[in-house]
Specification:
GMP Synthetase, Chain A, domain 3, binds zinc ion, single chain, 10 helices, four-stranded mixed β-sheet
Length: 220
C-alpha cells in the first residue's frame, strides 16, 4: 500500500498537470488517512497568495481575479464548492478555507492538479453580513447622514466604539478613508449583497428628506 502510494506520489510530482493522476493520488491519500497531505495539495493548487480584499472590481462581491476571469465571493463553503466545480474562481472567508478544502477533496468533482485554466480560490479577511436577517438599529443608521449614504452607496450596520462597520454597494478604494475623514469615525468594510445594500439605503434614507428639512429651516 505504502509502496503504491509512493509510486503515485512520484508520478503526480513528475506530471502535476495530469488531472486524472492527481485525482487518483487524492483518493489514495484520503483512503490512507493522509488528510493533511490532501489539504496541502488542494491548498497549493487552488489558493492564490493575493487575497480577495486586495483585488479591484465593479462591486464588493465581484472582483477581477488576476487570472483574466472574475472572482465572486461565496458566503458558504457549499456555494464556493459548486462555483469551483463549474470552473469559476471563488472567494471565501479565510476561516471557511479549511472546511472548504476538506469538502473539495471529498467531493470527487475536483482534483489537486495544477493544469491550466483551473479555477482560483481566494481568501477574504472581511466579515460577511446577511442583511436580510440582520436588523440595523436606527442609532447606527443615524451615524451616516443621508447624502453620504446615497452618494457613497454605504450603509452602516454596526457600531463598536469609534469603529463603524459599513456595507458598500459599490467598491471604491477611498470611500472608507473619505467617510472617516468627514465624520471623524473609523469605518471598516463588511461584505454584503450590493442589491440589498442599495434597497436598504433607499428604505432607511428617504430621498430628499435632508434637503426638504434644510429648506424648511431656511424658509421658516
Ligand atoms: Zn481566477
Amino acid at each position: 500500500m505504502d509502496h503504491d502510494l509512493n509510486r503515485l506520489r512520484r508520478a503526480a510530482a513528475a506530471d502535476p498537470a495530469d488531472a486524472a493522476l492527481a485525482a487518483r493520488l487524492d483518493r489514495a491519500l484520503l483512503r490512507g488517512g493522509a488528510q493533511a497531505e490532501v489539504m496541502k495539495r488542494y491548498h497549493s493548487a487552488y489558493v492564490r497568495p493575493v487575497g480577495f480584499d486586495e483585488l479591484a472590481g465593479p462591486d464588493p462581491l465581484e472582483r477581477r481575479c488576476g487570472c483574466g476571469r472574475g472572482v465572486r465571493y461565496q458566503p458558504s463553503a457549499a456555494q464556493a464548492l459548486a462555483t469551483l466545480a463549474r470552473g469559476e474562481c471563488a472567494a471565501v472567508a479565510r476561516e471557511a478555507l479549511p472546511q472548504l478544502l476538506v469538502a473539495m477533496a471529498a467531493s470527487g468533482q475536483l482534483s489537486s492538479h495544477t493544469g491550466p485554466r483551473r479555477a482560483c480560490l481566494r481568501a477574504s479577511e472581511l466579515p460577511y453580513v446577511d442583511l436580510l436577517t440582520r436588523e440595523v438599529p436606527f442609532e447606527v443608521i443615524d451615524l451616516l447622514p443621508a447624502n453620504f449614504a446615497t452618494t457613497y452607496r454605504a450603509l452602516p450596520v454596526e457600531r463598536r466604539g469609534r469603529r463603524v462597520l459599513v456595507a458598500l454597494a459599490k467598491q471604491s478604494p477611498t470611500v472608507l478613508e473619505d467617510l472617516g475623514f468627514m465624520l471623524d469615525l473609523e469605518f471598516e468594510q463588511v461584505l454584503a449583497d450590493p442589491t440589498t445594500v442599495d434597497a436598504l439605503i433607499e428604505a432607511y434614507y428617504p430621498a430628499g428628506f435632508g434637503e426638504d428639512l434644510a429648506e424648511m429651516i431656511c424658509t421658516a
